[in-house]
Each structure stands twice: as structure tokens, then as C-alpha cells.
Prior knowledge:
Helix content: over 70%
Distance between the termini: 16 Å
Low-confidence stretches: 1-9
Largest sheet: none
Shape: globular
Amino acid sequence: xxxxxxxxxxxxxxxxxxxxxxxxxxxxxxxxxxxxxxxxxxxxxxxxxxxxxxxxxxxxxxxxxxxxxxxxxxxxxxxxxxxxxxxxxxxxxxxxxxxxxxxxxxxxxxxxxxxxxxxxxxxxxxxxxxxxxxxxxxxxxxxxxxxxxxxxxxxxxxxxxxxxxxxxxxxxxxxxxxxxxxxxxxxxxxxxxxxxxxxxxxxxxxxxxxxxxxxxxxxxxxxxxxxxxxxxxxxxxxxxxxxxxxxxxxxxxxxxxxxxxxxxxxxxxxxxxxxxxxxxxxxxxxxxxxxxxxxxxxxxxxxxxxxxxxxxxxxxxxxxxxxx
Length: 324
């Protein structure tokens, strides 16, 4: 964790913007291929390993689902095929990280100023503090649907590239309209609310109850590592069923949409309840390192940017009073 600033203010808003944005970019470059694998596995609606068939057949099916047209190509071409929609992913991931890393503390500060006595009265002081972090995360998660068009385009490019054939982005938006890019917004909000609640709440609970921290900003690298793993695994597991539904809504062709309830009925009928957790293991395996990586990079870069901006005399931009 970075050393606390000697100023009476926390790091400036512009330092948070630059630090979290850089963190999102580096995370994207490293983890985008794994995200593509998870999305393609979640979008697949056939059984990969069928009882009675040789394991080699199941592995071949998995290979086709993951690498699509590059299934039989050389290694480097296979790897390159896991980077579709990188432009959309860059816009989405960087904006998402800036929004989440920078936005949740502001919402939490607002709750502390206006609702802290109520939370403490209902939950007790320690649990109330954790619940405020979780609630702030939930509000930020719901607001994240503003970025949905970029997420929709990223997922379609990852899982359904045929939807882009012969159409540029501008023409695609003109043909489908903004409403088409916000398809699945309610399902996304329904997934984000408990998912972000579990992410920030789980992380805060680990710091509060496992490590006994009073000031979360003073957590060590190891404590942040454990808190990130606890929060992210809880978040991904809680949100997994609705995440699969959201992904299938978004990866449909624009001219052939399908509603969430219809998708749920078909999943239960044809694939069983296990379908709601497709792609969960790859996401859990990557989400811990991903969040620890992005969190650590952000925490290192934000103070560095703050010091640089302090030298330039612009640290007043977006300053907030540091919490105790």
C-alpha cells in the first residue's frame, strides 16, 4: 500500500483518474484473452463433454468453442484470435476501472456523512462500516449500466463477430439505435447490484473481521491481496447466474434478440441448472489475480501521479477530505 499523503487532503481526483485508468489499461492487456475464453464458454449452448464419448472429442469441442475459426491454426494465430473487440474492451475496461476505483470512495464518503449513525444503529459500528462500503459498491455497480453499450459491443465482438460483418461501428449504432445497445440493461443492473455489493462488502469484511483494520487505507499488500480475493470470489459467485443470462442476451444478433426469461427457461430445459455457472471456474481463477493486480497498480500509481501533479500545482482538482 502506498504511504499516506502528508497533505490534509487525500489524493486528488485527477490523480485517481490517471492512476486507475492506467491500471485498467495494463489489466486489459494481460487479462483480455482470458476474459474472451470465459465469455465464449458462457455463450456456448452445447455439451462439450458427452457421456460415452472419448475425452479427445470433448477437448476438440472445447478447442472449437474457444478459438472458433482459428481452432486448427498455429499457436500465435490462436492467441491472436483471443483479442477480438480490443478497441471496445479498452474503452469499457478503462472507464469501468476509473468509475469503480474512483467512484465508490465518493459514494462511501457520502454515506458516512449522511447515514453513518443509522448504519451503526442497525448493524453495529464494525458491521455498519462494512455495510456502508458494500452499499456504496452496490450503487456504483447499478450506475455502471451507463457503460453498457461498450460492454455489449465488446461481448458481441468476442463471441459473435458475424454481427459486425459488413458494418462499421457508426453504421451499426445507426442501424440498431442506442436502445439496441442497452438491451439487457435491467439484467445487468440486477447482476451488478449484488455483485458489487459482495465485491466491496466482502473486501471490507476481510479487512474488518480477519485483519481488524480500523483504517482500510493502511492495509498492507498481503492484506489487500486477501481482501481482494475474498471480495472478488464472493462477487463472481453471487453474480454468476445473472452474468450468464446477461452475456447471452448481449451476444445475440441484433436482428434476433431474445428476452432474459426466455433464455432462463431454455437454459433450464435444455442444459440444466448447471448452465447458470458456465465459465465460473475460469472467471474465479482469473478474477483474484486480476483484481489484486489492478488494485496494486492503481494504489502505486495514484500517489505517484499525485506527487507529480503536486509539483505542477494542480492537486486541488477533485480533492476530497481524507477519511479517518
